[in-house]
Protein backbone atom coordinates (compact mmCIF):
# COMPACT_ATOMS: atom_id res chain seq x y z
CA UNK A 1 0.00 0.00 0.00
CA UNK A 2 1.66 3.20 -1.20
CA UNK A 3 1.10 6.43 0.65
CA UNK A 4 -1.14 8.88 -1.19
CA UNK A 5 -1.56 11.59 1.47
CA UNK A 6 0.77 14.53 2.02
CA UNK A 7 1.77 16.01 5.37
CA UNK A 8 -0.64 18.95 5.13
CA UNK A 9 -3.54 16.62 4.31
CA UNK A 10 -2.70 14.39 7.27
CA UNK A 11 -2.48 17.33 9.69
CA UNK A 12 -5.81 18.74 8.50
CA UNK A 13 -7.46 15.34 8.98
CA UNK A 14 -6.11 15.06 12.52
CA UNK A 15 -7.38 18.55 13.39
CA UNK A 16 -10.83 17.78 11.94
CA UNK A 17 -10.92 14.48 13.84
CA UNK A 18 -10.10 16.26 17.10
CA UNK A 19 -12.83 18.86 16.51
CA UNK A 20 -15.38 16.15 15.70
CA UNK A 21 -14.40 14.19 18.81
CA UNK A 22 -14.77 17.31 20.96
CA UNK A 23 -18.25 17.89 19.51
CA UNK A 24 -19.20 14.32 20.34
CA UNK A 25 -17.72 14.10 23.84
CA UNK A 26 -19.10 17.49 24.94
CA UNK A 27 -22.56 16.29 23.84
CA UNK A 28 -22.88 19.13 21.34
CA UNK A 29 -23.82 16.54 18.73
CA UNK A 30 -25.73 13.50 19.96
CA UNK A 31 -27.77 10.63 18.65
CA UNK A 32 -27.25 9.28 15.17
CA UNK A 33 -25.36 12.37 14.05
CA UNK A 34 -22.99 11.92 16.99
CA UNK A 35 -22.29 8.33 16.07
CA UNK A 36 -21.66 9.31 12.46
CA UNK A 37 -19.19 12.08 13.36
CA UNK A 38 -17.26 9.86 15.78
CA UNK A 39 -16.94 7.21 13.05
CA UNK A 40 -15.74 9.87 10.60
CA UNK A 41 -13.25 11.08 13.21
CA UNK A 42 -11.93 7.54 13.67
CA UNK A 43 -11.56 7.03 9.93
CA UNK A 44 -9.77 10.38 9.57
CA UNK A 45 -7.34 9.47 12.35
CA UNK A 46 -6.67 6.01 10.95
CA UNK A 47 -6.05 7.23 7.42
CA UNK A 48 -3.85 10.09 8.60
CA UNK A 49 -1.64 7.77 10.67
CA UNK A 50 -1.34 5.25 7.85
CA UNK A 51 -0.93 7.90 5.14
CA UNK A 52 -3.25 6.10 2.78
CA UNK A 53 -6.84 6.95 1.82
CA UNK A 54 -8.76 4.33 -0.20
CA UNK A 55 -11.09 7.00 -1.65
CA UNK A 56 -8.08 8.87 -3.03
CA UNK A 57 -7.14 5.71 -4.95
CA UNK A 58 -10.63 5.39 -6.42
CA UNK A 59 -10.67 9.02 -7.57
CA UNK A 60 -6.98 9.11 -8.60
CA UNK A 61 -6.01 11.76 -6.04
CA UNK A 62 -2.51 11.92 -4.58
CA UNK A 63 -1.55 14.77 -2.23
CA UNK A 64 1.93 13.54 -1.32
CA UNK A 65 5.01 14.65 -3.19
CA UNK A 66 6.40 12.31 -5.84
CA UNK A 67 9.93 11.19 -5.09
CA UNK A 68 12.43 11.42 -7.99
CA UNK A 69 12.93 7.63 -7.91
CA UNK A 70 9.17 7.05 -8.36
CA UNK A 71 9.06 9.55 -11.20
CA UNK A 72 11.85 7.75 -13.10
CA UNK A 73 10.13 4.38 -12.73
CA UNK A 74 6.92 5.73 -14.24
CA UNK A 75 8.72 6.93 -17.40
TrEMBL record:
Q: Cite the entry's keywords alphabetically.
A: Membrane, Transmembrane, Transmembrane helix
Using the record's annotation, list all stretches that form the Inner membrane protein YgaP-like transmembrane domain.
1-65
- The UniProt transmembrane annotation reads 12-29, 35-59
> Entry's InterPro entries?
YgaP-like_TM
Q: Which Pfam families match?
A: YgaP-like_TM (PF11127)
Does Transmembrane appear among the keywords? yes
Q: What protein does this entry describe?
A: Inner membrane protein YgaP-like transmembrane domain-containing protein
Q: Which organism is it from?
A: Hydrotalea sandarakina
Amino acid sequence: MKKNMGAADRIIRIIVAIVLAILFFTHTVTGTAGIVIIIIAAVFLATSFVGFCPLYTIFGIKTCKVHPSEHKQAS
